[in-house]
Amino acid sequence: MLKETLPMSGEAPTASSQAITLEALGKSFAKALGQRVLGTVEQSYLQQAFDDYAADETPEIAGDDLTVLLATVWQSAQTRKSGDPAQITIGPLAGVGGRSTGCDVVQIIQDDRPFLVDSVMGELAEVGVMVRGLFHPVVETARPGDKAARESMIIVVIDPLPQERRDALGEGLAQSLADVRSAVVDHGAMNALMARSIAHLEACPAGVDPAVVEENLAFLSWLNDDHFVFLGARDYDYPRTASGGYEAEAPLSQSGEGLGVLSDPERTVLRRANEPAVLTKSMKRQLDLSEPVTVAKANIRSRVHRRAYMDYVGVKRYGADGRPSGETRFVGLFTAEAYDRTASQVPLVRRKVTNALARAGKTPGSHNEKRLRNILENYPRDELFQIREDELLGIANGILHLYDRPRIKIFTRNDPFDRFVSVLAFIPRERFDASVRERIGRLLADAWGGRLSAWYPQLSDQPLVRIHYIIGVTAGDHPTPDMDALEIAVAEAGRSWIDRFERAVRVAGFGEVSVGPVSAKWADAFGAGYRDRYDATEAVQDVQAFDCLNGSGLVDGGEPVAVRAFRTATDSSLHFRFKLYRRGSAVPLSDVLPILADMGLKALEEFGNAIRPAGDVPIYIHEFLLEDPRGDSLTFEDVKIPFEQAFSAVWSGRTESDGFNRLVLELGVDWREAALIRTLARYRQQTGLDPSQVVQEEALREYPEVARAILSLFKAKFDPTLGDVASRQAPVEALIARINRLLQDVRSLDHDRALRRIALLVEAIKRTNYFQVGPDGQPAAHISIKIASRELEYLPLPKPYREIFVWAPHIEGVHLRFGPVARGGLRWSDRRDDFRTEVLGLVKAQQVKNAVIVPVGSKGGFYPKCLPKGGDRDAIQTEAIRAYKTFLSGMLDITDNIVADGSVAHPADVVMWEGDDPYLVVAADKGTASFSDIANGISADYGYWLDDAFASGGSVGYDHKEMGITARGAWEAVKRHFREMGKDIQTEPFTVVGVGDMSGDVFGNGMLLSKAIKLVAAFDHRDIFIDPSPDPATSWVERNRLFKLPRTSWQDYDKSKISKGGGVFSRSAKSIALTPEIRAALDIEDTVLDPASLMKAILRAPAELLYFGGIGTYVKAPRETDAQVGDKANDAIRVDGGEVRASVIGEGANLGMTQAGRIAFALSGGRINTDAIDNSAGVDSSDHEVNIKILTGAAIASGSLQVGDRNALLASMTDEVGLKVLAHNYDQTLALSLQEADGPAALDAQQSFMQWLGAKGKLDRKVEGLPDDLRLAEMKGSDQALTRPELAVLTAYSKIELFDDIVASAAPEDPFFEETLVRYFPGPLAKYEADMQRHRLHREIVATVLSNEIVNMCGPSFPERLRQSAECDTGAMVIAFEAARRVFRLDEAWDAVSGLDLKIPAEAQIVLYREISTVLRRQTFWLARRAARAGATVDGLIAAYRPAADALRARGGVVLSHFEQDRLDKRVQSFIGLGVPVKMAKAVALLRPLVATSDIGDLAREAGWPEPEMARLYHQVGAAFDFDRLRAAAGAVPSADHFDRLAVRRLIEDLMSEQMVLTRAVARSTDMSVGESEAAAEQAVDTWIGPRLRIVEGVRASVDEIEASGKGWTFAKLTIANGAIREVAATAT
Prior knowledge:
The protein is α+β, with helices and mostly antiparallel strands and 1629 residues long.
């Protein structure tokens, strides 16, 4: 017995395992069945299964597993009865204990019959199932209650299948086995039917050649002699007409039920549709021409025995008239023996062969006769059965001739039923290979519009290879090819690849000398797969496409890919193809498919080939079949080139891949025009007000006419070849009108909004670089547009003056500018979708910040879209710099320049729909701190007039971090807060918490500005630092050490220097344990916090100062949401303003708080300004640098400065520039303190100012966080003033508005302000005064200085109030202000008060400042009318009035009336009481009585008196007529609103005018000696009154009566008193 060992259960089976013995298998099988002894049948079952087992076929199945399998099948068979249908089970094969074997098993139990295994295996092969093992025991059964029978048990182990395939396999097996059953069961009946047919033919029908009948009968008998496997049979009757003819196109009737597989009436034999068949023309012809027996191929494939098309044998039946009346059709398979017999041994065939040989006329025994006989003997047997004798003779002779001249040749035969074409192709052996066979097969199938059903090769030692092709066609519906053309095509297909390739090279136009080298390199490069699919002509086209490829296939210069779009003859209008070429490596489909999808295309198929040229890297070709759902409306020729170029542009990174690229196909435009639309749409997306990009893309796609019109409008405006702007107006207006008409047909509101706003954007664009080309003639890689933002209705407020939007595939950026002369930083944004929103928020702060400098606010932000994912710091920085350069280039592309002669030069190929605009200045910001030199390098490349003044802070300039200027400026604000709280933080220790680290500019410099700092806690984006009880001196030294080291973090802090309980904690920690010291320092009770909660606690800590020096927004108002803040990264950390317990907040960094958060903090009692106020020093320093560089550039141009001396000069002025900048920080924070001191009393003036700005469209209170009128009314009722953050905004708006007005006035040209211009610059530049006067921004510099001084000293509402009350213009007001300062030496007094910092209480200083400010406002008012006179100048007013002021100041209070002297003494004592030095108190107190100096000066000049003498007389007139008392009373009258104040001011003006009239009259009546003493002056007044005593007494009585009436003075009472005095004054004229 065979001894093999099967792997036992529990072991891992292996292929080398030996099978168990049959004895062991029997024992385990018996055990599985629960039997002690196996019967004979069971033993037979096991023996057969054991014989079928091969251990190496199924190593996964262990010995016990096989036992389980066999036992399972055996037990399944026990319930089956003989005659039942096949029992089929398919499922997972489980081993012992249910162990998974990783295989499936097919179990089939049925009655044994022929063809079972062949049929089952055929079905498995048909569906592609991998068979691992087959067991086929057949046993004799005699189960109780059932008859004895042979039972087949087929067990097939297969690879595992999904359930869907198992189900389909089960259905297929059931059908196959049903066919087997039918064929076997009906075998006898089919034999009987054949016998009947033979008997019928033996009657020898009339009209049929008996010899033919005899041969047909021999054939039928031969079939019955085991040469044919009968599988089905069916009788048919031919339809006849009444006259006995055949009825054309009538259905054949089945005269009885079919047998075998044809028992199913749905099965067809000669056609594909259901039976009964129709008597077609071809069948009718067959009836007339054919012999009694017809042999052909059936239309159905056999499921029995072997998978092949069944053979059809039709035997005619004849009627009484001798004509065919029907036929019996048999289907089955010729047996192998039928094919093995020689042709001479097969009836029907032998007659055709013999006759053909005889008719050929070859000499018996000759070479040709023998060759022809061989051809006929080896002719395809199926063909011999079916072919007509004439056809056989013709083809055989043709084949014979081939042997004389071997070549490619085809011979065709059409199926008589028109179902297929049989083609014999002969190919010389040396030319034959699989590719030739496949090419010819495809050609033949295409020629007949059919399919290659089968092919049968014959290879021998003969010189020709024969391929027998069967081409299936649709009967009556297929083309008939031109056989000559087909022969030529087949011959060409059989030529060698090299022959065909070289011929294609010649046809393509290559010179003859090139054919050899091209062929040598490329002919063999195309592999078999390529040659099978494409011809040589296609290969040459591909070679030509290779020429443009770069050497690497990477996006590193040149074209990384090439694209060729095309259509084949079979492609519909919805389809086209393209080839993608790349050198070096294949193209990942994942990279290609999204590009196609974005263009609205679906890739249906992809074919790839690697082309391997000799001595070169491979080139990869990918062919894609694409579907365009909207292709019906497109013309392929129109979109072919745009598609190719667009795909290449996306791949090479010249444009982006998104839905806008669909426009390339939809409109037939090139990719740059699609990029232009993308640019416009992306800008609109950045506004945050438009529908999504998906909606934009959809709208442009659905309304292509609107999209075309928008592009036409853009071209009409900006194509430089279309003439000047004036000539464009009409066509532009016509296009706008057309767009508006087209928009009327847009149905969707979202689509209308998207399209309309893009069109309006084009209308608002003033410049673009779109049509610019470089030296290489190519357009720029980026697109920039300059927009007049205020012309756009749909923009968030505030709207900039201009903005430039730049798009490129790797960057988008926007630069917002609020005036022609503007500056601000460019930041590297991390907000792709709303960086404009971020920039707009920043530029609001920049506006406030820029109020101290020449330019107004601007801000830019760019988003690098291609930062390397997972890249290191250097790689990321490199890509960011590339984006930054592109952004700057986009802006400079469309910015005017100033050339050597001072004229403005416009950029090439830029059409301007605006005036000159040459001023563009940028600066560093978040992420771009080290980029200034890069920016200035680009400026130099463009030859931009600002040169390295374009971007401040470069290597030749004022380094903000090195100067520490931003932090120092912020520290001025912090010091003022504490100084006004009574603390000197430079000497007195104070606690600080903050945001930032010592490596940063603002935080690092800031935390070194006082050695009294006790930094308790701080955090940045990496770590949290806590020092609960720091030593100021020790910690300062350690912070200084860290600051001086590059790229430090809090982790580098010397932990030994941290006080007990403190430490440095990573923000990545899950939780942080808090020591008692930390809890005490932060005033919290938690013992453990996560990092976010700990940082919140730091922000809420009870420190004296919260200092912002890092990036992020950490404080908001309670009513604000985190989403509104717009800083998602810090949502978990942010707190509300009212929760902050610090006394002071210093904003060294931008956007540490929202404006509403600042206000909330201020309302809770905290001291705060705004970030724009606190950190303005950086921008101020940069502006000084820019203006200094403009001046030095002019000095170099004039020859007064040598180029080589400039940089040293700049460096030498660093300290002075810093001091000038810090003075502005000092002044601005002082200005806020003065306004804050005004308290609620200023609300009316502030409200009027806000209303005035709002009416002009200059201020949106909601945007700026300022209260509306309703809120102001509530504030007045609750005696609540504006907070410092709100005052900061008003201050900035006032300065900006005043700046514009001053620039527009003649004031900057006043010669006095030449000194202002010189004073603006550092001292060493004074020698270049002549160049200063030619400074491009000299007027703006003067206006900036003056607007700051006026608003800082007099308040934000002062300029407009004064212009209204004095009825003067801005020029007169400015001249009056400057004259007032100088005449009364108020600038000196102001500086003297500032010199008292920390020497007297801060509140005392505020009182003094306010006193000086009050005098300055009044003196400006009194001088404004004089300044409004023609020819008035500052110098003129100073010359006219300063001598008088100086003289009166020298006399002090002795010239005043008793009333005024009393008031003067009270002011002096009040100042002294506040701690003001006596001398200072007297000097400031004396300023208010000097208000009449200008009047006194005019009177003295008229009379020729000394000013002191005239002053004494003036004040005595005031006393005599109660002017002093009335003016004091008027000043105390409460004013409900602006108009009340204006009326009181006019009343005081009347009183002053009347006093001047009366003083003039008295002076004329006497001489100057009366001014030498009070008594003399009083006597002179009385003498003048004498004649008018009655009138004067009446006035005095009226005043006394009014005053005695009680309830104080009112405006009405004052008006009556003034009327009485006016009567007296009238007598003086």
